[in-house]
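EI: anyone free to look at a 116-residue chain?
SC: sure, send it
EI:
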Amino acid sequence: MRLLEAMKNIVNNALKYSPRGETVDVRVQKAGTEVRFSVSDSGPGLNEDDLDRLFKPFQRLAQQPTDGEVSLGLGLYLVNEIISRHDGEVDVETTKGEGSTFTLVLPTASVSAKHP
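SC: here you go
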């Protein structure tokens, strides 16, 4: 349930910070022993100061949501906590003025065969 919460959060953020009518791209890939859940937007992107504060609690970033939505500054902090507790990491690629891609990188689950 927590992984789903983290995924929903980064999708919601992409929608919240993208201009109305723009597309948000969601991709899931399995690469070797990891699964990558990526969300890309065409929002304002992040500056260096924002990147330094991105995963800290109660940090509001320079960019504001495009439709006046409320931001408490906890979403990405919680995403990072959830993903870390599942032995994963959060990658961020961003270009100021062109958008961002947030990727949740998680190890694949190992399945052991059970014998009766």
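EI: The longest helix spans residues 2-17.
SC: 👍
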